[in-house]
Amino acid sequence: LPKLKAANEKACGMGVNTGLIFSQRLWNRDTLTPELRVLAEKWVLRRESGDPIVESWDHQHLGAGQWSNQQQLFGHLDYCMCSAVKDFQSFAIHNVVGVLSQAEYSTMFYDQSIETNLCFSPEHNHPDVSAPCMASHDFLSSLKAAMLESSKGAALMGEGWEVVSSQFLDAGWVWRTPANPEVFRYSLPWAGA
Fold first, then answer.
1. Fewer CB under 10 Å: which end of the chain, C or N?
2. Higher-confidence residue: 106 or 50?
């Protein structure tokens, strides 16, 4: 860690931003410590049936061949955390700020910054099943504020470049151009010219 911190400080001194990709939304269920497994079971998004929502990490994007949970030798399953749970939000923000400050990174790429799944967990006490998506605005606002408090000038990048996240992300990307790319008209007017 001291060498990494020194390298990041040196890069910053040369005007270079350093960062890393960070996912708090997806937790690999096969590698969780006992303590994290307890938290995952508490914070995971749940289907109407009560089953946890899991996703496989695969490379089925842009026409590539799939390797995922259907091919167990190559993929893994991740629990999807519910971004509407305040304890989860605090945990994620604490982790992001901790990584930024400990290693002197200036940029954080927060993977999958907007949740689109519904959550039916009765333990989460959501007013509505769309709570995870509805919580994205306040969560990203709090995350960005905490990052700036910890590291003046910190940049937040993220996957999910649409109206909600673009209010807080300094840069973002998506796998495919959205069907209704209104956000580009106002944030990148030259891109549509």
1. C
2. 50
